[in-house]
Design goal:
With 99 residues, this protein is mainly α. Helices cover 60% and strands 4% of the residues. The chain has five helices and two strands; from the N terminus they run H-E-H-E-H-H-H. The protein has a two-stranded parallel ribbon. Helix 2 links the parallel strand 1 and strand 2. The longest helix is centred in the last third of the chain and has 18 residues. The protein is elongated, with a radius of gyration of 18 Å.
Length: 99
């Protein structure tokens, strides 16, 4: 089973344009969300240099990509706390077996 990648939300929180390779199995959902928001560039080894050159030449475009990444990060922030809150709420609603 393929696995790998680094959490792209870590640099995205600082509005850094995120460019990553095609190995992101550990973060499929995050990458899917970032792709939907045009907030990440997935590139092959062969495309990396060209992608970085384009970003260096188009600072406004790179900045916009980074800002879209930050927007995704902010939308995702607190997801764990919201999930725990929902689970606790569900557990409080269910009667405990044997009581």
């Amino acid at each position: 089973m393929a696995k790998g990648g680094h959490n792209p939300l870590e640099p995205a929180q600082f509005a850094v344009p995120v460019v990553m390779g095609p190995s992101f199995e550990n973060f499929r959902d995050v990458v899917k969300t970032m792709r939907a928001g045009d907030a990440v560039r997935i590139v092959s080894r062969e495309m990396l240099a060209e992608t970085l050159i384009v970003m260096l030449r188009d600072a406004d475009g790179a900045r916009a990509l980074g800002e879209r990444g930050r927007a995704v990060f902010e939308a995702q922030a607190g997801a764990t706390a919201r999930t725990v809150e929902a689970l606790v709420s569900l557990l409080q609603e269910r009667p405990v077996a044997g009581q």
